[in-house]
Amino acid sequence: MELEVDIEDPWPAGEWEALAERVGEAAAQIAPELDNARLSASVVFTSDEEIHALNREWRQRDKPTNVLSFPMLEREELLTLSPEGPPVLLGDIALAHETCAREAGDKGIPLEQHAAHLLVHGLLHLAGHDHETSAEDAETMEALEVKALAVMGVADPYGDRD
């Protein structure tokens, strides 16, 4: 999967593009449907103001949030996508700096670690996973997030698991 990364103000200088690439590689290891060279996705590191506008326009939610995902494929399309053929847009992910930074501070973790978690979360949404459909789907998605983050050496964001 190829990621196109755009970093906007107010995100501070950092290795955000490299982080997104590492997240993409980890996600592809735990969700093999993402391990397809035909796939591309865009990731934008942006502001709460921009996320608020996107959330209001596309989700009818008049507030900022930490991450938004805009899938372009249905899960069944992704699961049956041949590795041969032209490029296919998986979707778009946007992260809001101020909300992400506040949440990372509240959790006492580095912004990079929280951004990695949110990017994994966003990629799983693009892959058709949805934590809002049922408690079982939420547990499945969280378990995948934990596995992908573990591949990166990032601690379980949900706490200790057996």
Automatic annotation (TrEMBL):
Record-listed Zn(2+) binding positions: 121, 125, 131
Pfam families: YbeY
Localisation: Cytoplasm
PROSITE patterns: UPF0054
GO cellular component terms, A-Z: cytoplasm
Cofactor(s) it depends on: Zn(2+)
Cited Gene3D superfamilies: Metalloproteases ('zincins'), catalytic domain
Domain of life according to the entry: Bacteria
Alphabetical list of InterPro entries matching this protein: MetalPrtase_cat_dom_sf_prd, YbeY, YbeY_CS
Cofactor note: Binds 1 zinc ion.
GO MF terms held by the record: metalloendopeptidase activity; RNA endonuclease activity; zinc ion binding
Keywords, ordered alphabetically: Cytoplasm, Endonuclease, Hydrolase, Metal-binding, Nuclease, Ribosome biogenesis, rRNA processing, Zinc
Enzyme Commission number: 3.1.-.-
Signal peptide limits: none
Main location: cytoplasm
GO biological process: rRNA processing
Function: Single strand-specific metallo-endoribonuclease involved in late-stage 70S ribosome quality control and in maturation of the 3' terminus of the 16S rRNA.
Family to which the UniProt record says this protein belongs: Belongs to the endoribonuclease YbeY family.
Protein name: Endoribonuclease YbeY
Annotated organism of origin: Croceibacterium soli
Gene: ybeY
